[in-house]
Amino acid sequence: MDTITGCCLTLRPRSLGIADHHSPQLSTPKRTVSLLSLYKNQKSKTKLTLSSMAAPLQVSAFSTIGARNEELGTASSGLVGENDLLIVGPGVLGRLVAEKWRQEHPGCQVYGQTVTTDHHDELIKMGINPSLKGTKATQQYPYVIFCAPPSRTSDYPGDVREAALSWNGDGSFVFTSSSAPYDCFDNGQCNEDSPVVPIGRSPRTDVLLKAEKVVLESGGCAIRLAGLYKADRGAHAYWLEKGTVEVRPDHILNLIHYEDAASLAVAILKKKLRSRIFLGCDNHPLSRQEVMDLVAKSGKFSKKFVAFTGTSDPLGKRLNNSKTREEIGWEPEYPSFAHFLGVSK
After folding, report:
1. Which protein family is it in (predicted)?
2. 241 against 52, higher pLDDT
3. From CA 273, how far away is CA 291, in angstroms rounded?
């Protein structure tokens, strides 16, 4: 192929007369595109779609709120790189995934879909290109991760289904689920293959299992995560705030640090596996009382916990994800809550 110099080509989308259900109506004013940039994109395996001819090339996300599009930079560029990632629900976990993904794939684009525009400015500063939930997508992505919680929607499985439609099937689609569906409430042992709560018994587990079903049927993978935590978030932070909590102290719970959950998610995304369920935990189950004893022992928190006063609520489970670790080749940075706090159990 001859080298293309920096000449320009003027594109008039109306004249193409071509559109499909993935592309917007090609009715925008003409755009000037550098042939050199198109050649470079081809060399770097970046896909040029028709939608790229219908939107400013410098803008990377999309929205349906009229004039606000220009403020937020939310018109789709139509240029999708082979390592680009869409994060549905770029909250604490999603943002850590974005950071770690970018470290693994320098130069990639990371997109974040949110329910509101409240945090779009923050996302832009972090290099995440924001869009609004409910916006008709003009492109699909090779990597998609769903990190949004079920608490802010009336149709969680439906939202997951929409996310699956944003995946082009090339890389990976990962859903961050919960370990809650495992049918164990006697502080017994559980692993990736343990039975789950039957559909119909609990609305909380029903919504998770139905969402997982959508993911698996689309070829995606689910990660059932234990209780997420960092210094100022997690069960321990909630209990410190409350002081006295009316639940039993001997209930066993399982934990995973946000950083470790993100690194596990990235490791699974990179594997490009299909229709699998994995488990994310630190393999060091603790009773509620043990958690708060470690908090007190650490001396790192100004607030003081008083007591658990419950006696009859359900017990928990002891999770072990050795199978996930072996297959994915992953180990946590924080192997236990005690290690994170810098104290011995």
Report:
1. Belongs to the NAD(P)-dependent epimerase/dehydratase family.
2. 241
3. 35
pLDDT tens for each residue of 203-260: 999 999 999 999 999 999 999 999 999 999 999 999 999 999 999 999 999 999 999 9
Return the amino acid letter for 228: L
Q: Which amino acid is at 95?
A: R
CA distance 114 to 167: 17
Higher pLDDT, 123 or 76: 123
Residue at 339 is within a domain? no
Within 8 A by CB and 6+ apart from 38, the residues are 48
Does the residue 8 lie in any domain?
Answer: no
Tell me: pLDDT of 333 over 60: yes
**Distance (Å, whole) CA 12 – CA 2:** 25
How many distinct structural domains can be found in the chain?
1
CATH of the domain at 204: 3.40.50.720
Q: Is residue 46 part of a domain?
A: no
Containing domain of residue 173, as a range?
Answer: 85-229+256-284+319-333
Contact 54, 28 (CB under 8 A): yes
Is the Cβ–Cβ distance between 261 and 228 less than 8 Å? yes
309 in any annotated domain: no
Residue 54's pLDDT is 33
298, 259 in Cβ contact below 8 A?
Answer: no
Question: Which residue reads 């290690």 in tokens?
Answer: 339
